[in-house]
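Team,

Forwarding the record for the chain on the shared tracking sheet. I've put the sequence and predicted structure together so nobody has to dig through attachments.
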Amino acid sequence: MGRSLLPLALLVVLSATAAAPQLVGAAGRDHSLGIIQKDIIQTVNNHPNAGWTAGYNPYLANYTIEQFKHMLGVKPTPPSLRARVRTKTHSRSEQLPKVFDARSKWSGCSTIGKILGKGHCGSCWAFGAVECLQDRFCIHHNMNITLSANDLVACCGFMCGDGCDGGYPISAWQYFVQNGVVTDECDPYFDQVGCKHPGCEPAYPTPVCEKKCKVQNQVWEEKKHFSINAYQVNSDPHDIMAEVYKNGPVEVAFTVYEDFAHYKSGVYKHITGGVMGGHAVKLIGWGTSDAGEDYWVSC
């Protein structure tokens, strides 16, 4: 197959902070301590207006605060970079459902509900981008493909940031326009193990860009999938919802606090702990809890 083209959307800077009262604490912790802290779990679960339950997260059991911060992977976007990307808005007259899940609307697109593991690398900025891109190829062109986060992490270079040490989601989408991205079969992700054993060090260096398919007889240039354009979506909730409802999942970047690592259930909002950094995920829907709190659905 030759090159594939698809209009894309990018959403950046969605705050994870809540309007409810927040407790300040833990900002001065020793970063060599584990990210999972009993006092954070107790503080959240004893807060009368938290709206969510904190608990022990086994996946993060071996991570220190510093290692957790390294894994987040979204760098602050320079204003000059954002200024070069147009911002899209949607008409306020558009009627949107009160509850929406892209997995249900486009049930034939299995990639929407698929969560990919990024292992030891701070590459969430790349995973969020390729996950949304492959979803939109399915939604708009009925193409079920899995795209390569490794292509972005290894080959985008300084344009996207610092690979495993974090990047700019906006630049990932510009890379789709200028360079395209190959399939995951052509260039699979370099870390297939992840941080699962005691004492592991989640700090892999950025993989080398080889521009060569791992599968015999596949040509790198022929496995590229391109975007026609890239844009960011206005951060107003209506614009975000309209974009997802009409065109499919979007990548979002948000501020992460220490308590986020302890999330178990409910509608998350910041209660306690210091800022850890920026993180990117795929936003696929929204709704309102029984308590009347609006929430986003991401994966």
